Amino acid sequence: MAKEDDLGSDASDLSPDSGSDQDFFNRDRHLCYLQMMLGVLPTYYQVEDINRITLAYFAVSGLGVLGGLHLVDKEMVINWVLSLQAHVKDETELESGQFYGFHGSKSSQFGSSNSEGPILNGSHLASTYCALAILRTVGYDLSLIDSTPILKSMRSLQQPDGSFMPIHIGAERDLRFVYCAAAICSILENWDGMDREKAKEYISNCQSYDGGFGLVPGSESHGGATFCAIASLRLMGLIEDDLFTKNATPNFIDVPLLLEWTLQRQGRDGGFHGRLNKPSDTCYAFWVGGVLKILGAQKLIHKKSLRKFLLTCQTEYGGFSKTPEMLPDLYHSFYGLCAFSLLEETGLPSICVELGITNR
């Protein structure tokens, strides 16, 4: 991603404030943490090298939420992200069924081949979403990207039931990748990459008896899956913003039951959990809180107790942990910051909830 000294010259201005981590939102310390993670990843992230673009998305987008993009060498980040795009040699390769998006890292660009077919590339829907989100965050002109191969090959990943696989063979198919496809089309402002009507039907079939959404039809309701469902529908233009306040209930999902299930995810400690009988977890303040924001029902969140819970997960090193008294990680740090943006923390920009990036 980057060398430590390539990220900017303002890091010396950032020194952790004194005082208890549970007393206030420590913006400076979070800036230091994310800048460090963008430069040099700790040893325990080595096993995640194939997902390096996702880690970069958490770091760059997190700096965006903190208003710290001046600390990023944008040109270097743009060049690195663009180097991960898979390219076709000719139009016939688009008929192979493979996906030509973005790779998760340099290591996944070493494809395998055989004498009977083309070189198999390792580009992935989630990596492509993260790549485009980074480029948009740092202000890259996305019209410069050759999006036709991305969208045309992505269309072949959509299954007859409306779901998506992230790669062309041997992968799961569930709401996560419907969301990635919707986000890619939204960022590129071109919906040729998916059949929205089929996707809507699949999403509708994933709503459970209790109002939440499972990753696949018939599975247990889950906070992350519910976000993927509602954010996808919003991105596809199939539900209005602020459904709760406008009383504009669509007929293909049960919004009152969804709202009831979502509100029940806030626990007595103020935090949100993703499933019944699970402990509160930093990331669900965004996944579940984001659903309530899209629905226009964020006023029903007990914000004071949620903020108090999140501050217990803020660590002395900067960043956020999954639960109190644990070490921070990039995933929970980013979504913890997004949650504070949803809580309208002073000094933080607003975010586009559906895309998981700042409004720019």
TrEMBL record:
Region entry Disordered, spans: 1-21
Coiled-coil spans in chain: none
EC number assigned by the record: 2.5.1.59
InterPro entries: GGTase_I_beta, PGGT1B-like, Prenyltrans, Terpenoid_cyclase/PrenylTrfase
Organism superkingdom: Eukaryota
Any matching Pfam family: Prenyltrans
Any one of the GO CC terms: CAAX-protein geranylgeranyltransferase complex
Domain Prenyltransferase alpha-alpha toroid: 25-351
Cofactor(s) listed in the protein's UniProt record: Mg(2+); Zn(2+)
GO MF term list: CAAX-protein geranylgeranyltransferase activity; metal ion binding
Keywords annotated in UniProt: Magnesium, Metal-binding, Prenyltransferase, Repeat, Transferase, Zinc
Keyword Zinc on entry: yes
Enzyme class name: transferase
CDD domains noted in UniProt: GGTase-I
Family, per entry: Belongs to the protein prenyltransferase subunit beta family.
Name of the protein in question: Geranylgeranyl transferase type-1 subunit beta
Organism: Cuscuta campestris
